Amino acid sequence: MRNLYPGVSFQALTRHSNEGNEAPDIKAFSSPPRPLPRTLSRTRSAPPRAASSVAEALGAAVLYGAAAISMNFINKASLRVYPLPQTLLLLQMGATLLVLLTLQMSRWVIIPPLVPRKAWALLPLTLLFISNVALALVGLQTLDIPMYNTLKRLTPVLVLAAKAAITRKAPECDIASSVLLIVGGCLVAGLGDFSFDLKGYICALASVTLQASYLLLVERSGAEKGVGVAELLVYNAVLSMPFLLVAVVGMGELVQIIPLAHAALASLGAWSCFWLLTANSLLGMLLNYSLFLCTVHNSALTTTIVGVLKGVVATTLGFFLLGGVPVHLLNVAGIAINTTGGTWYTAIKYRKRRRLMQQQALPVVIMSSSPGDALAQHHKAKASPGAMTPALHGDMHDAENPRSSKEAIAAVISTLRLHKNDSAQSLEHMVRQL
C-alpha cells in the first residue's frame, strides 16, 4: 500500500524510568486519507520519580513534627539527669543501627550492602549531622525550650538564602514573604524570654547553620543519588559512631558515666532511668528517620517549615512543662504571626504540588523528521516554562486548549507546502475532521 504521508510520523516519548530509558514507540501513517484514528500512538506518562502524593508528603511532615516536639522534652529531661550530650547521641545511633538490623533480619526492610564509595560520598552528610545534633544538645542543655526553639527557627532563612545563591534565582515573593513572616513571628515570641547565655547562643546558632547545610545535602543525597531512607540511616549511624566515640573520650564524658548513673539511680530509681534512656534512644532514631523521610518526600525548605511550626507547639508547651517560663503578651502575638505565615506557606506549597502532579500526568509527544520539527517547535514555543507538552491522542484535543492541536497541524501543513509535499492535502483533511 502506497504511503501517502512520506516523512511524517508521530513518536510518543516515555519518561525516564528508574532503571533507564524505554525504547520509543513509533507509528507511521500508511493508509489513504480518512477520519482521524482514535489513537495515533501509544503513550505512557509515568514519570521516573513521580512527585510524592499529598498524603505521603503530609504524613511525613506530621511524623517529623510529632517526633521533633516529643524529642525536645525527652532530650531536656535526659540532659537534666545525664548531662552527657555526646553519650546520649551515641546511644541514639546505636539504637538506630540495632533496630534497622532487626527489621532487616525480619524482612520488614531491605537494606543494600554497604559500599565504600557510597559511604565516602555520604561522609560529609554524617559530619554535618553529628555536629548539628551535638551542638543542638549543648544549646538545649543551657537554654530553656522556648528560647532554644526561637533560635532554631532561623533555619528556613538560611535554607532559602542558600537555594537562592545556588540557583541564582530569587525566591518567589509569596514564598519569601511567608517564610519571613514565620521567622518574624518566632522572633517576636521569643522577645519575652531572653535570658542571655553566651554558650547556649553560640551553640544554637552554630547548630542552625549546620542544620541548613545538612537539610540541603540530605535532600540531594536522597533524590539524586537514589539512597533510600533506611539506607541513609544505616550509613549515618555506622559513620557517626567512630566520631562520637572519640568525642565521648576526648570531652571527658566517659569517666562521668558511672558516677552520674549512680546518682540517677539514687534519685529516680532503676525503672525510671531505664525508660528515660530507652525513650531517648528510640525517639532519637524516630526523629532521624522522620527527618530523612520528610526531606525525601518534601523539599528541604518544607522540612524546615515543619520544624518551625513544631517549634510553636514546643514553645507553648515549654512555658508550662519542665519548670516552665513566664508568659508574656509578645509570646502570644508572635505565635499568632508564626501560625499565619505557616498556614500561608502550606497553602502555597499545596497548590504548587497539585499543579506539578497534573503536569507530570501528561505524556509527551513530538514529531520525528523534518516536518515534525515544525510541530515540536510550535509546542515548545506555546508551552510555558516547566510545563510539559500535551499528547496528541484521542480527538487530537489539547488538555488545556482544544484549538492548539489544529494550530500545530497547521504549522506542519505550512512546512509541507514549502517543501511541495503532497501530504499537505492529507493533513488538511485531518484538520477538517477536528
TrEMBL record:
The keyword Transmembrane helix is assigned to this record: yes
One family name in Pfam for this protein: TPT
Spans annotated as Disordered: 20-48
Recorded topology in the membrane: Multi-pass membrane protein
Annotated InterPro entries: Sugar_P_trans_dom, TPT_transporter
Keywords from the UniProt entry: Membrane, Transmembrane, Transmembrane helix
Protein name: Sugar phosphate transporter domain-containing protein
Species annotation: Symbiochloris irregularis
